[in-house]
Structures are given as C-alpha cells and as structure tokens.
Write a structure and sequence with these properties.
five-stranded antiparallel sheet; 40% helix; elongated
Length: 225
C-alpha cells in the first residue's frame, strides 16, 4: 500500500498518531526443563502411606526447583514465520528474526490505520451537505491552478467540494509529478486548510486521491495517542 503524504496548507496544523503495537504471548512449555507428574495417593498400611508421603514431598521439591528455573529464564513468545523464512529460522528465531517480525507487525498495523483514516475521510466526503458559497469558488480555484506550471505532468480528473472538505482525483505522467503534487498544492494561494495525499500505482497507472479541508478546519480524522 502506498504511503500517505500529510500536508499543511497555510497556517493550519496536522498531526496523526500511530496506533500502539500488539503483543502476543503463549503458554508453550519451555524446552530443556523436565516435567514432573504428582503421584496419586493410594490408601494402604501405615508403612505404605508414609512411603507415599515421602514420595510426594520429593516431587513437590522437584516442582519448586523447576518453577525457580522457569522464573529465571527470559520469556519467549511463539512467532509466526514470515514469508520466505526457512524451517530452521522458525525453529530457532534469533534477535534479527525478532526485529523482522516486529517490523512486519508494525507495518501491517500502519496499513490498517491508513485504511481506517481514509474510510473516515470518505464517509465525511459522501455525507456532508454542499455549501455552494464555499464549494464552487474552491473548485474553480483548484481547477485553474492545475492549468499552471506548478502542476505540469499532473491532471485534475475530478474535484468535489462539500461544506468542510474537498476530494480530488489526480492523474500523473510519471513518479516525479506524483511526488511533487503535495508541494504544488502548498503553493496555491487561497488554500489554507489541511491536505492528505494518497498516491497509488496500479498497473503502471499513477494516480493520487487528495483530501483538502476548508481554511481553519481540521480534516475529519480520529487522532489517537
């Protein structure tokens, strides 16, 4: 999934907090530590009972020693082998494998957060009423700006403004034009809200979806700590 570019038009501020990481734990037995089974107490003559009691005490002491060794060992968590990992890597994960798994989990979490934020933006864009006094002149301003030299290599395919938010669909000739889109929008006089750019490259076709907020308004996104 393409990265999201966050921009500020004019003096408005924008911030997005990343979601927290998940931690997986397991109750797998620790290798190398022998297991013990507590014997069942059987009824019998006093001598036999005394022998059983001694055996139980010995097993209890063994359990306590094993518990002490378990508490001293570092905690390990079962991990899913990442794509391309060998069976040996999965059986014997080292520090490098731990870091790779953590990075993969964080990237997955980042992508899920991006999808969640875009869903919030799309919901607002499709449910807001249209304020013609702001929407019409803003659409004209953006349309005229794309005809200028700052947007060479990019074409405005669609723009729709509502009350607090505009959505743009932009097509690009190459990656350079796509990368410069946010910088070009920053130069447009009259746009003083927040901007989020979602670049895409599907089948060699480069496009971007842009969300612009009204001056003094924040984009409708749930910010998290």
């Amino acid at each position: 999934m393409s990265k999201v570019r966050w921009g500020v038009l004019g003096l408005a501020g924008a911030a997005v907090a990343a979601a927290g990481a998940w931690s997986l734990r397991g109750d797998a037995p620790t290798p190398g530590v022998p297991t013990t089974t507590v014997s069942e107490v059987r009824a019998g003559p006093p001598a036999d009972l005394e022998q059983e009691v001694r055996a139980l005490r010995a097993e209890l002491e063994a359990l306590r020693r094993n518990q002490g060794r378990l508490e001293q060992q570092p905690h390990t968590s079962p991990m899913q082998p990442v794509e391309g990992a060998t069976a040996k890597d999965a059986e014997d994960p080292g520090p490098a494998r731990d870091e790779e798994v953590v990075r993969a989990a964080r990237e997955q979490q980042r992508q899920e957060r991006v999808v969640e934020l875009e869903a919030e933006l799309e919901l607002a864009a499709n449910t807001e009423p249209r304020d013609a006094q702001w929407a019409a002149p803003t659409e004209s301003l953006v349309t005229q700006s794309f005809q200028g030299p700052d947007f060479v290599g990019s074409r405005l395919a669609r723009i729709e403004c509502r009350t607090h938010l505009c959505t743009l669909e932009v097509e690009h000739d190459d990656g350079d034009a796509q990368a410069e889109l946010l910088t070009s929008l920053l130069r447009v006089k009259g746009l003083r809200g927040q901007a989020v750019v979602r670049p895409r490259n599907e089948g060699g076709r480069r496009t971007s979806r842009v969300y612009l907020s009204r001056a003094g308004e924040r984009l409708p996104m749930t910010l998290r700590k």
